[in-house]
């Protein structure tokens, strides 16, 4: 039987978000291809319906203006034809407009999912043909005269028909053909050069309107496709937002579970650790008498040291979790950064001297106090100095600088002469439990939480953390505190002198 892999377990839980999105995309593409193959225009059903809907809206909106145009044409043709004939022609136009408008309104009232697009497309083409034939009867009104007037009327009717039916190319052609044939029929009444030129210009104009309608159809299809793509993008964004909200909810639940776990485990681990540390210290110090076997003394030291290391690791994990959760309590007060650095250097000095390392201090003692959390600041300095001692080889040098920044803040810089960190591993050492390859080989045992904790504490103070390192050249860490945390001291008040407004005295910046 084959081994159970992580991928198989994940598949058993269902498709991932990426897999689900890929499947939805494939299904959408297949549906689109199927609709294009079954469509008469080569477009998706949604596009076909939208084009027919636009045609119906244009026709409904143009009903009254076309009726008024027919009245004007009938009135003008009364100069060449009896009013009864002109009125009958106008009634035919009104009837055609009414039938087409009624059909368009009925189309617009139907459910888009149930409407038969092919059937309505045929009806619209037939309606355009009938209405165009009615407009073409304008030639009969001007049979005895006014042929030029009829010619321009046919051109106007062709322009209106092709523009209104532009979204249905077949209807545009059906509406233009009878008008073009009627225009050519004017050559039967006169074959002089002027009539030939007028007819040629009229037919050319009608063909131009047909080309313009084709361009309008292409632009409309492009606009519909752009809108569909925009809607698809919006849908994907909404889906991505929903996925993001779900992921955030799960992350919050996981973070809450992690906090509860750490709170519970810290209590459960510290209780036996206190007993281990206490009893191991009693055995190490031989409180109840010397050990019968010399090895017991060594074992007691190892137990006590291992317990201290485990306790420090638990404390570091808890500190990092509180920082990441935003629950680290800041007890801010006015403190001297130079004094904190000096105290921490003395605490680390014993370890440095045991390795023959030398400290070089460049500390500006005139720096004023800063408003910060003393415990956090002390932990920052201790972690940086401890790392420097850890990563510096015996006989190496460690440089400590404390001074002013160019913006009026204060900075702490710790540089060692250790093996350094390759550039591609800088992100690793800044991650939780991350350690570089050279550090694993050359440094003492560590948890990989020192620098992440330092950066988190610096961020809580609104400061800046910089790490610069190159292999075989050492590592330099610069911690910058903003000028808003620097407290300038006021000069002493001379009660014998005249009252003067106190001025702020700022120490000169160190070079």
Summarize the structure.
Keywords: Coiled coil, Kinase, Membrane, Phosphoprotein, Transferase, Transmembrane, Transmembrane helix, Two-component regulatory system. The protein has 511 residues and is of the alpha+beta class.
Tell me what you see in this structure:
The chain crosses the membrane at residues 60-80, 86-104, 148-166, 172-189, 196-217. Helix 6 packs parallel to helix 9 (169-185). A 5-stranded mixed β-sheet has the order 2-4-5-7-6, covered by helices on one side. Strands 1-3 form a two-stranded antiparallel ribbon. Helix content is 64%, strand content 9%. The chain has helices at residues 6-12, 17-38, 45-61, 63-76, 83-109, 117-136, 138-141, 147-164, 169-185, 193-284, 294-325, 337-354, 374-391, 426-429, 437-442, 450-460; strands at residues 332-335, 358-363, 370-373, 397-404, 410-416, 464-470, 474-481. The radius of gyration is 45 Å and the shape is rod-shaped. The chain starts with 5 loop residues before the first helix and ends in a 30-residue tail after the last strand. It is α+β, with helices and mostly antiparallel strands and 511 residues long. The protein contains 16 helices and 7 strands. It has 3 domains: 43-237; 274-325; 332-485, Heat Shock Protein 90 (2-Layer Sandwich), CATH 3.30.565.10.
């Amino acid at each position: 039987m084959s081994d159970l892999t992580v991928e198989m377990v994940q598949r058993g839980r269902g498709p991932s978000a990426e897999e689900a999105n890929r499947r939805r995309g494939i299904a959408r593409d297949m549906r689109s291809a199927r609709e294009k193959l079954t469509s008469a225009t080569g477009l998706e059903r949604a596009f076909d319906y939208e084009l027919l809907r636009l045609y119906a809206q244009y026709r409904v909106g143009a009903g009254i203006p076309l009726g008024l145009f027919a009245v004007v044409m009938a009135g003008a043709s009364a100069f060449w034809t009896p009013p009864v004939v002109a009125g009958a022609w106008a009634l035919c136009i009104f009837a055609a407009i009414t039938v087409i408008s009624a059909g368009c309104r009925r189309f617009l009232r139907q459910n888009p999912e149930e409407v038969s697009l092919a059937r309505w497309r045929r009806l619209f083409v037939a309606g355009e043909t009938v209405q165009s034939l009615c407009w073409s009867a304008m030639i009969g009104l001007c049979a005895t005269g006014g042929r030029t007037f009829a010619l321009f009327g046919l051109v106007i009717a062709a322009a209106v028909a092709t523009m209104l039916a532009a979204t249905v190319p077949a209807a545009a052609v059906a509406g233009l053909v009878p008008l073009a044939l009627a225009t050519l029929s004017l050559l039967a009444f006169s074959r002089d050069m002027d009539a030939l030129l007028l007819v040629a210009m009229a037919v050319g104009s009608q063909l131009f309107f047909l080309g313009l309608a084709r361009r309008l159809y292409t632009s409309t299809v492009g606009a519909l496709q752009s809108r569909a793509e925009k809607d698809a993008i919006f849908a994907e964004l909404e889906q991505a937002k929903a996925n993001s909200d779900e992921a955030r909810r799960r992350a919050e639940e996981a973070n809450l579970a992690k906090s509860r776990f750490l709170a519970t485990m810290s209590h459960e681990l510290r209780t036996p650790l206190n007993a281990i540390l206490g009893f191991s210290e009693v055995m190490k110090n031989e409180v109840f008498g010397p050990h019968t076997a010399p090895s017991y003394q060594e074992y007691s030291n190892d137990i006590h040291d291992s317990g201290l290391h485990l306790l420090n690791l638990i404390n570091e994990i808890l500190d990092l979790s509180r920082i990441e959760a935003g629950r680290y309590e800041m007890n801010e007060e006015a403190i001297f950064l130079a004094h904190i650095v000096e105290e921490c250097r003395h605490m680390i000095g014993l370890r440095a001297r045991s390795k023959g390392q030398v400290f070089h201090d460049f500390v500006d003692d005139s720096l004023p106090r800063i408003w910060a959390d003393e415990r956090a600041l002390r932990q920052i300095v201790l972690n940086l100095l401890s790392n420097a001692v850890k990563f510096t080889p015996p006989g190496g040098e460690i440089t400590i600088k404390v001074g002013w920044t160019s913006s009026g803040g204060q900075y702490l810089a710790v540089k060692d002469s250790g093996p350094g960190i390759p550039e591609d591993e800088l992100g690793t050492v800044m991650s939780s439990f991350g350690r570089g390859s050279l550090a694993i080989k050359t440094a003492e045992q560590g948890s990989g939480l020192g620098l992440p904790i330092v950066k988190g504490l610096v961020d809580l103070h609104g400061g800046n953390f910089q790490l610069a390192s190159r292999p075989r050249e050492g590592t330099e860490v610069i911690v910058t505190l903003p000028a808003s945390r620097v407290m300038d001291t006021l000069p002493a008040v001379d009660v014998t002198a005249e009252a003067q407004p106190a001025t702020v005295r700022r120490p000169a910046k160190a070079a």
